[in-house]
Amino acid sequence: MPIDPAIVGSRSPEFSTVAERGRLRFFTAATGQNDPIYSDMEAAGSAGHRDLPVPPTFLFCLEMDHPDRGSFLTDLGIDQRTILHAGQKFEFHDQAYAGDTLTFSTEVKDVYAKKSGALEFIVRATHVTRDTTPIATLTSTIVVRDPKAGQ
């Protein structure tokens, strides 16, 4: 099923979530971060941070907090068994910290096909803000495989 290019520019409902200190420490340990600024308040303060800084890729984890994150694909009629994560890019604008309430707003930036439509790609940009301050732009690409292609 071809993805309608008219979805370019469409937006998902925004949501907000808190960067909790305990989750940050867990993420830091799970990803092998050795820098104590990500887990120790004294080290973070000594380095000039007002709280534990949010590690760069933790924003992707927070994006997964969206209360209705699968609805975008469902609304397009896409079987989630046919998708793959094809890429992720992070552009940082300001530092986020433990305790910050971050707002995530996602829009479709591009849709394109390869292999005569057997693979379709959806590029989405998620803008992360704290109040009105831009924190980061997370760009993700998913590929949708047409299970009927090549039959």
TrEMBL record:
Q: Which CDD domains match?
A: R_hydratase_like
The organism sits in which domain of life?
A: Bacteria
Q: FAS1-like dehydratase domain: which residues?
A: 7-137
**Annotated Pfam families:** FAS1_DH_region
Under the heading SUPFAM superfamilies, the entry gives:
Thioesterase/thiol ester dehydrase-isomerase
Which InterPro entries does this UniProt record tie to the protein? FAS1-like_DH_region, HadA-like, HotDog_dom_sf
Name assigned to this protein: MaoC family dehydratase N-terminal domain-containing protein
Organism annotation? Streptomyces albipurpureus
Taxonomy, top ranks, is: Bacteria, Bacillati, Actinomycetota, Actinomycetes, Kitasatosporales
